[in-house]
Amino acid sequence: MDKIYHIGTVGQPWGDAEKAQWLSEQQIKRSFFDDVLPAIAALNNDFDVEQYGELDYQHVCGKSYPLFAVKSRNWQSNKPTVLVTGGVHGYETSGVHGALRFLQTKAQAYSEKVNILVLPCISPWGYETINRWNPQAIDPNRSFGESGKASEAQQVRQYLASLDTQFSLHIDLHETTDSDNSEFRPAKAAQDGTVNKNWNIPDGYYTVDDAEHPCPALQKAIIDSVAKVTHIAEPDDEGKLIGEPMQQPGVINYAKATLGLCGSVTDAPLVSTTEVYPDSPSATPEQCIQAQVAAVTGALEYLLQQG
């Protein structure tokens, strides 16, 4: 079903006035400073917590948002290094809290064998306003290439480059929500001057492999791990998930570097983007968080089995 967005003129891309109208409609709905920062600070006892950047949005909402990375201690160059990213899309709640839960419950045990780096909340303004975009109406998850314009993404790129580290595995934690069809995709189409055509939101968990550097065995290991916690998405009548052909049960492919996705931000040979469905009548918020943790641990077990 076509859905016409309330901002802009059909067939005409947004200009500054439309973006300003969109921004004026955004409201703070929850607190990064109450929900996320204390959890990050509490990890100081067991991990190295580093501030890698800041988002100065004083002109938008009167706030500046510190950006934090959490690192396992005793990094050793002979161990594989693993990156976990959450909150690239700030509204995807279990991505943020799944990254934190992994740190709180599982990361220390794995840090004996791997170096672990977690960026729990890359887009804190998006977290607070329950938004996919940043205040400039830019999607951070299309901005991880060299020409990307979202500061959220570019500060991650700069920080990772400063580490001069070769990553073996990168897991990027996301959700697919009903609001993708009701709000975010219609807004994107309006901004582009096109009309959105909805696809079915899959009921269940799935992963996105990299079409340019696929690692299907990793995706299977993740799916098998998550299936112990929550249900895996079934394909639609066309054998697709979110409009993309299913490659194996619960897996689709995207060209991550071409699209500027977070999954392309390192040269890691093993990459997966998780997609949890929090609006499912068959999944609780707690299950969604556990599914993200299961995705990370399933990926780590696969990595360690490769020797």
TrEMBL record:
PROSITE patterns: PEPTIDASE_M14 (PS52035)
Cofactor(s) required for function per UniProt: Zn(2+)
Keywords: Hydrolase, Metal-binding, Zinc
Statement: the UniProt record of this protein carries the keyword Manganese: no
Pfam families recorded: AstE_AspA_cat (PF24827)
Residues annotated as domain Peptidase M14: 28-303
Keyword Hydrolase attributed: yes
InterPro entries listed in its UniProt record: AstE_AspA_cat, Peptidase_M14
Active site location: 275 (proton donor/acceptor)
UniProt superkingdom: Bacteria
Family: Belongs to the peptidase M14 family.
Protein's name according to its UniProt entry: M14 family metallocarboxypeptidase
